């Protein structure tokens, strides 16, 4: 109450003085848009905790199912799918993997263009039911061509979920609150989906009746697809809308949720960018850097996800059951590593040292997998590789969001990055070729070189952004990103 009275008195005083000394048009406009903090720190802390409780549970759940549904093809492959539909011949498996990314790349930007207009809870729920139905259909295929068609549709439906979720998170949290939260969102979903190989093994043991229902790989798709549909149908009750439409917030909480993002900056009322404005936003050179970072993360993440069970079985000599079981623990380690580094990044208010360190951890792990001899040591290397690669997926998204001042542009940045990440998925599904087994030397060294390139690019870009911050502090470039008071988070 005291803060409200103080703010009101300040405004009244300013108005009184303006009658004696009239303000220029620019000064009046700035005064009208400058954010005045009319809430207490305790009130803000309570609101952030309330947002945390509402935003993440269902987003994490849906994304976990999407990760499960796009990656379960590798589990089905070694459970008999390869033989029953002729998927093991030639490059059919790689084709089935990469067609997913056609729709995934094309639909990212359109999805983030409509999500705030239609509403997050209805749009994301529609997408979840859609990709659940596609996965369910995979349980009834009889040819590899049918699988390819369904995998293409799967890409279209899953495309909007990840960038939409990142857009929602970035709309609720401050610059140095997003790192650990995007990482938590990504890693909690990854943790849940990390048990996918174990679940797939259990489902593949099901035998029912005669004919196709005695083929265990079908039950992987049937059960996981059915569960996804159920989650999608109930998700409108739990998905949080964007701050201005959030039904779980009262009017004052909505005001604080939006205004606290712009303390000491001109207040921004959200405005839907037009198609022309969206394309103009894409011309920012920094989006190329953010997209390259996420491209490399995607190449590495998808390559390991799709080929890790195969590497464990053919490359390290483990049995089918043990290969499935051993696929999960590295993702538990990745979750701990990513959350720890994301928390540290927010704490020290720097992104580049953490991202570069994760790249070096990934490179170390891949080299161990390549050149160590004992299976146990190579498995440890796989742990490091998964930790380093997975940590930079959410870290690069946080990096991109933190260098973007305008709310409308954040959705464009997230969609652009993940669209390019889809191309990384195509590369990740093709660089590990069957003829390169069991070491997959070309794929391994491609991944290593890309990780080292991210180190160089991230460091150079961050030093440039740090210099721009210094120029802004000195008053030489006062309006970074066209927003007065904004500073990059390199």
Structure description:
The protein has helices at 2-20, 25-33, 41-84, 92-98, 100-106, 108-118, 120-138, 144-158, 161-172, 178-193, 196-204, 216-234, 251-259, 275-281, 286-315, 320-326, 329-348, 352-371, 375-402, 407-430, 441-473. It is mainly alpha-helical and 490 residues long. The chain has a single domain (56-239, 278-482), classed as MFS general substrate transporter like domains (Growth Hormone, Chain: A, Up-down Bundle). Helix 3 (41-84) runs antiparallel to helix 9 (161-172). Residues 1-34 have low confidence and may be disordered. The chain crosses the membrane at residues 55-81, 93-115, 122-141, 153-173, 185-206, 218-239, 287-307, 319-340, 352-372, 378-399, 411-432, 444-461. Keywords: Membrane, Transmembrane, Transmembrane helix, Transport. It is a multi-pass membrane protein.
């Amino acid at each position: 109450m005291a803060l409200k009275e103080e703010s009101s008195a300040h405004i009244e005083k300013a108005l009184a003085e303006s009658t004696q000394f009239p303000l220029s048009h620019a000064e009046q406009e700035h005064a009208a848009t400058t954010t005045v903090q009319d809430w207490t720190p305790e009130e803000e802390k309570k609101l952030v905790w309330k947002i945390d409780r509402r935003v993440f549970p269902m987003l994490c759940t849906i994304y976990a199912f999407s990760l499960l549904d796009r990656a379960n093809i590798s589990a089905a492959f070694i459970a008999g799918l390869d033989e029953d539909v002729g998927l093991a011949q030639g490059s059919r498996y790689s084709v089935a993997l990469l067609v997913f990314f056609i729709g995934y790349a094309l639909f990212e930007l359109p999805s983030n263009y409509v999500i705030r207009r239609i509403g997050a809870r209805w749009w994301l729920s529609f997408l979840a039911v859609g990709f659940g139905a596609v996965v369910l259909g995979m349980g009834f295929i009889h040819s590899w061509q049918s699988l390819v068609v369904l995998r293409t549709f799967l890409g279209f439906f899953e495309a909007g979920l990840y960038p939409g979720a990142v857009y929602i998170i970035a709309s609720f949290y401050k610059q140095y609150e997003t790192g650990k939260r995007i990482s938590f969102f990504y890693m909690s979903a990854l943790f849940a989906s990390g048990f996918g190989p174990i679940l797939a093994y259990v489902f593949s043991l099901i035998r029912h009746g005669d004919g196709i229902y005695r083929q265990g790989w079908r039950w992987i798709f049937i059960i996981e697809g059915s569960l996804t549909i159920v989650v999608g149908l109930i998700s409108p009750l739990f998905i949080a809308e964007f701050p201005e439409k959030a039904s779980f917030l009262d009017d004052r909480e909505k005001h604080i949720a939006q205004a606290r993002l712009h303390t000491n900056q001109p207040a921004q009322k959200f405005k839907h960018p037009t198609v022309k404005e969206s394309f103009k936003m894409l011309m920012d050179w920094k989006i190329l850097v953010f997209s390259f970072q996420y491209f490399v993360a995607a190449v590495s993440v998808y390559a390991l996800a799709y080929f890790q069970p195969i590497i464990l079985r053919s490359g390290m000599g483990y049995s089918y059951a043990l290969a499935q079981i051993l696929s999960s623990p590295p993702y538990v380690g990745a979750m701990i590593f990513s959350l720890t580094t994301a928390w540290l990044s927010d704490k020290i208010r720097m992104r580049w040292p953490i991202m570069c360190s994760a790249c070096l951890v990934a490179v170390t792990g891949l080299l161990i997998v390549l050149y160590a001899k004992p299976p146990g040591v190579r498995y440890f290397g796989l742990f490091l590789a998964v930790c380093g690669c997975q940590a930079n997926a959410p870290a690069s998204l946080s990096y991109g969001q933190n260098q973007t001042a305008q709310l409308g542009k954040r959705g464009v940045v997230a969609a652009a990055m993940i669209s390019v990440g889809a191309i990384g998925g195509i590369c990740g599904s093709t660089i590990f070729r069957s003829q390169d087994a069991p070491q997959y030397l070309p794929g391994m060294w491609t991944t290593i070189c890309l990780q080292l390139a991210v180190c160089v690019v991230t460091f150079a870009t961050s030093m440039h952004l740090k210099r721009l911050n210094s120029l802004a502090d000195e008053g030489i470039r006062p309006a970074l990103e066209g927003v007065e008071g904004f500073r990059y988070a390199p």
